[in-house]
Amino acid sequence: MDRVRRNERLAIMTKMLSDSPNEIMTLGSFSELFGSAKSSLSEDTDFLKNLFQEYHLGQIDTMTGASGGIRFRPVPTPADALATVSSLAASVSSPSRILPGGYLYMSDVLSSPKVVEAVGAIIASQYYRAEPDFVLTMETKGIPVAMMTARALNVPMVIVRRENKVYEGPAVNINYLSGSGTHVETMSLSRRAVKEGQRALIVDDFMRAGGTAKGMLDMMKEFSVTVVGICVLTSTAEPVKKRVENVRSLMVIDSVDELTGEVSIRPAGWLLAAADKQKKDDMKTDKG
User: Fold this and answer.
1) Would you tell me which of 174, 194, 257, 286 could form a disulfide with 262, CB atoms 3.0–4.6 Å apart?
2) Global model pTM greater than 0.85
3) What ranges do the domains of the chain cover?
4) How far, in Å, CA of 89 to CA of 37, rounded?
């Protein structure tokens, strides 16, 4: 094999890392691939790490030890995350999106690979330390966001069904109170989908009162699975008290008025706070 030049190594490493987010790749594997010394690859890694940080392309980490290596995580800066969500909130605030009952049409947003990939990266960035074993969602509109979150975390996605499917084998079925609180619904999960003792991250597209999320929490109790977090793309400001606690949403719907056509959607407070903190930290660094 011909000697691989440094610019070629950098291009290939960037491609491999970005294609496999949150996966640790050893320097030994790169050394075998390129026929290069580990010292040269360490320099390449430092170069990529600084480059990704400077241009806000994500986060490259290095791990030492026998199982060490390098890992890419598509972590947006707080400012970039806020900008993404602010743009999304503005795009879905159009009166033309209002549906009967005060709902908003968002199927096109949830079907856009670019949008859901960005959203998934933002959500995943908040739960890397929690180390979930899988991402749990309820069919069907939450699936795209959950899938992109699972990809960024490099874990499987598990789907809770509204009814048991024959092709999924034996299942656990539970009843839960709907978001409106007016009737009882059923959800189902295959017994083979998760294992006792695992850790789950619940991701969904929308939350009003939290009935569906509460149902998924109860489902995880049936499997003896620990829930490390709940995150939704959009939640409503009312009711303030949800049926589940510690829910993180990216956008908050303050009001949808069918008569006037007014829609008020804003980025969640934690995104604003994180971006503000980053701005202050950057100012301190510049002064220092």
Assistant:
1) 257
2) yes
3) 6-73, 78-281
4) 48
d(CA 196, CA 223): 6
Tokens standing for residue 172 = 């656990």
Q: 244: Cβ–Cβ under 8 A, 6 or more apart, which residues?
A: 210, 213, 214, 217, 230
CATH class as words, domain 6-73 = mainly alpha
Q: ∠ CA 20-73-231 to the nearest 5 degrees?
A: 105
Per-residue pLDDT of the chain (288 residues; tens, 9 = 90+): 567 899 999 999 999 999 999 999 999 999 999 999 989 999 999 999 999 999 999 999 998 876 679 999 999 999 999 999 999 999 999 999 999 888 899 999 999 999 999 999 999 999 999 999 999 999 989 999 999 999 999 999 999 999 888 888 999 999 998 766 678 999 999 999 999 999 999 999 999 999 999 999 999 999 999 999 999 999 999 999 999 999 999 999 999 998 899 999 999 999 999 999 999 998 887 776
Q: How many helices (H) and strands (E) does the chain have?
A: 9, 12
